[in-house]
Amino acid sequence: MTPAEPNADRGAPTSGPLTDRYGRVAHDLRISVTDRCNLRCTYCLPESGIDWLPKDSTLTLDETVRLATIAVQRLDITAIRFTGGEPLLRRDIGELVERIARLQPRPELALTTNGIGLAARAGELAAAGLDRVNVSLDTTDPAHFTAITRRDRIDDVLAGLEAAASAGLRPVKVNAVLDPQTGLDDLPALLRLCLRSDYELRVIEQMPLDAGHHWQRSAMVTAAQVLDRLRSDGVDLVADERPRGSAPAQRWRVRTAEGDAGTIGVIAAVTSPFCADCDRTRLTADGQLRSCLFARTETDLRTLLRGDAGDDQIEQAWRATMWAKAAGHGIDDVSFQQPDRPMSAIGG
């Protein structure tokens, strides 16, 4: 991927909120802390033959804290989410959370995880200052889980969800990418689990971010199919009419035929893009700044950090990158090209 020239766009504001040319303001920073993962989900990673980032190219704890400090204190970032890969594979993730939680003003801190190591670390993370978690779980069927993730670890994920709730990392959200073959049949049981356990289910359309570049729009489960399946199973759906803002999920109040009630969110990133309301900026584990999940260019903040650049220089490179952010991801455009990096190397 070709690095972006940090100061290519001289029209970027030099102070104030982190804005782009379309008037969007970024308040949400996604920090990928590792590209490594202990699952091999079919829509993300190949089964084997993965070239992980060299250890010395990954941002250190101090480097990550420094960039987070610039984001919060100079760029008005108010929310930070730690992602991967699998962020719980970072041994120092608790210390990272603790140090960033001490920033003033204090950002809201969340983490997206596959849940495998969460049972052992939920209490530590809550004590460090983590506010909430999203746990990836695409099915409650053990055989389907193993087929999707290529690992027999569903019991660990379920234990992680329970531990997160017990530690007060609420709301506990479940991120589900439904399998094209089995996903719609898995959906009712997944919803029942979330409603009865007081988790918030988020069903996400599969996006073109797989390592093998095999994604096909015609094969993915769409938001419309999700809603149709729920209705056909007798689930009462009422759209939440509260302003959605920059939230990616369209929320629905639900009640099942068995009497379970709660909410579900559907993220139609492909069929109903919400790019016009995007408020995110992204930092990869190796210190590359991305203005969009689907960006084809990156700005190398790691080299600036390790080249003794001052905070002012890093801030202005960040502002220039976000100022040049595209209007949308362009998946429906004939010229669309999938990013070279898979989701595991970008950060969810």
Can you put this structure into words, describing what you see?
The chain is an alpha/beta fold and 348 residues long. The protein has one domain (2-346): Aldolase class I (TIM Barrel), CATH 3.20.20.70. The protein has helices spanning 61-74, 93-101, 118-128, 142-149, 154-166, 183-197, 223-232, 301-306, 311-323, 343-346; strands at residues 2-3, 18-19, 25-26, 28-32, 79-83, 108-113, 132-136, 173-176, 200-204, 236-239, 250-255, 261-267, 280-283, 288-290, 297-300. Helix 1 (61-74) links the parallel strand 4 and strand 5. Helix 3 runs parallel beside helix 5 and helix 6 crosses helix 7 (223-232). The radius of gyration is 20 Å and the shape is globular.
Give a concise summary:
It is built from 10 helices and 15 strands. By secondary structure, it is an alpha/beta fold.
Defining key terms:
alpha/beta; globular; 13-stranded mixed β-sheet; TIM Barrel; disordered N terminus; 348 residues
Number of helices: 10
CATH topology: TIM Barrel
Mean pLDDT: 93
List how many beta strands DSSP finds: 15
User: Domains counted in the coordinates: how many?
Assistant: 1
Query: Which CATH class is shown?
Result: Alpha Beta
Q: Report the principal-axis shape.
A: globular
